[in-house]
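lol ok so funny story. i was supposed to be doing the assay writeup but got distracted and ended up predicting the structure for this chain instead. priorities right. anyway since i did it might as well share w the group, maybe its usefull for someone
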Amino acid sequence: MVALGEDIAAGGKTWNNRGHVAALYQDELFEVRTGPSRTAALKDFGIYAGHAGVVIYVEPTNVLGANTSRTALILKGGTPIDYGEIGAAFAEVMPDELLAYMAGQVSAEQGDHRRAIKRNLKEVEEALDQARFRRGQNGKPGSYETEVGGRSPRTDEVRSRSATSSSSPRPQDATGRVGDEYLRKAREEMERRLRGQRADTDPLPRVVWDETGNTVPAGRAATYTRTSHVVTANATFDFYRDLVNWGVQEAKSRVASEIDDATLRLICQDEIRRWFEEALASAIVALRPMAYDAHWGPMVYNTGLSDEGLTAAVMSHRWLMMSAIKRGLAGRLGRLKEISVE
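and the output, tada:
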């Protein structure tokens, strides 16, 4: 792992002077991932900010040799390098220097947003959990076993599926693999990995803000780093900046003139970020379990939880978000107005 200096990253004359991931074998680089795939490769290793300044080289120990074009390595058993597994292991022992570097590239959550978001998500989960117990034809609540990331099949659906399984093709998940068998193995693997983890692991992602737009791609509201479970929100995203400007005008109509513009803008920014973070966190919490759903599969990280998917999640909350911001500003500024009048 190497952190590039600012002079190298910004120079433009050095070969590969931007962050990237590659395999190192006999002092030669293979499978160099740059360009559009650079960010995705670094995110596999838990890098959620400062992608331009991080270089990671993987050095496999079970190499048979290079392919004839010397672009990729041939491993024992014929399997490709599993960057996902290596990246997950790297993220668990992330060097303190790299953690400090990433923290310096973004700003952390402000205010007490996390507690409020957790409270709202818990309220939604409890309400939906109650809704899963529906009354059957006999007037009694049905009993359903909860599956990870999706609804459980009703008993009659399971029977019907079993009766027709010999003549109909087996269902496939979103990756194209055989659904039932793949999901069974995926759940077994998930349970194996979770045995060693605490039972009260917090599913809520950490939210940080990219103030300069150097981490999140332009025109995107946020990016999600699966390995480190971090959402990096874009403070230069047009919709966010428009909301801040609108919020300031909304606030000025509600507050006494004694409050200066800078303070007013900070209040509006904090309130707007609170609801941005809730929209992003809700999308992560709701869609992440879909990786084990037959109708989605692991491709959910490339679709619903992609940069474009998170942008859609935020943009679709526009009216609800503006309504919530109005209520929040009314509560905050109403109290400030009373204090200034006194």
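The chain has two domains: 2-105, 113-198+205-341. The chain is about 45% helix and 10% strand.
back to the writeup now i swear
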